[in-house]
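Margin note from the TA: students keep mixing up input and output lines. Inputs are the sequences; the output is the structure of the whole complex. Example:
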Amino acid sequence: MPTRHLVLFDIDGTMLRSEGAGVAAMLHAFTTLHGDRGFSFGGLEIAGALDALLFAKMMTEHGLPAHDEAHAQFRATYRDELDRSLTPQRVRRMSGAAELAHALHQRDVATGLLTGNYPETAMIKLRAAGFDCDRFPFGAFGCDGASRRHLTPVAIERAHAHHGRAFDPAFVTIIGDTPLDIDCATAHGCRAIGVATGPYSVEQLMSAGADLAVSDLSDTTVLLRWILGVELESTVVVAGETRHL
Ligand SMILES: [Mg+2]
């Protein structure tokens, strides 16, 4: 009997870290297509951003056209470079992420992605990190909306289409490593788990409105209980110690 729960995972900083290889592959694609113009993401907040928006910002900053054809060229070149350069040695899987996805799957919880990556590069990253991509058969991606907030209804609708049943936002949990992941959950009445394996601390993720913040995803039991249970109060788990606020 499938549960009514849906869990949406962010990728970078949440499930894995590509240690700069993702950004390097993007910059390589810009330079390959448009020459060496000193492309850099300096001054741009990358964590939690949508790749399609990063593309548009970069092109505009350099006075280049960001039309659909240029975007398609960029996507294809970035994909090829990431596929070539992102070896398993250059990607680090975050502690507990695969185990949590597996445990949710075993309990018939629907699992998908909510990420700023393009779908094709999301899969390249997950594969390189050794994740079972079948655990994430649908999702919302960095080309599916004007901001991360716009991705949440897209992901929920795709979960509906995939599983043939609707998901109530109150039973949707979004797991991510930035305040933007928290925001895209709470803005739609979903629950948010902040994980401090990216640039933000447990305290910062709680301040951003996370319902639960953890130092990493390694405590599968606590996370499962929280996702599936009735525990509604804000909770912090630091180094295995659970504190109810
Ligand atoms: Mg992230």
